[in-house]
Write a structure and sequence with these properties.
Length: about 80
């Protein structure tokens, strides 16, 4: 899977204001900013992202995905 394919999958299931991916095709690191993360705990945010992948994790199309998730307000404070 390419970075563009993975970005398209995540973006289709989760409105992202910012989405950056780095990886080697199996192991990925994502930085994701979404209004959907407002008021959500980190584990809830990760579950939301994993939900966009459907069975891609179980079928090993995406072997590993590490992520940092931010609401737009958190992202603005970080900048």
């Amino acid at each position: 899977m390419t970075a563009d394919q993975l970005k398209a999958i995540i973006s289709a299931g989760l409105p992202c204001e910012y989405l950056e991916l780095e990886g080697d095709g199996r192991h990925w690191f994502a930085t994701i900013v979404s209004t959907q993360f407002e008021g959500q705990r980190p584990l809830q945010r990760q579950r939301m992202v994993y939900a966009t992948l459907g069975n891609k994790i179980q079928t090993d199309e995406v072997h590993a995905l590490s992520m940092k998730t931010f609401s737009p307000a958190e992202w603005a404070r970080k900048a």
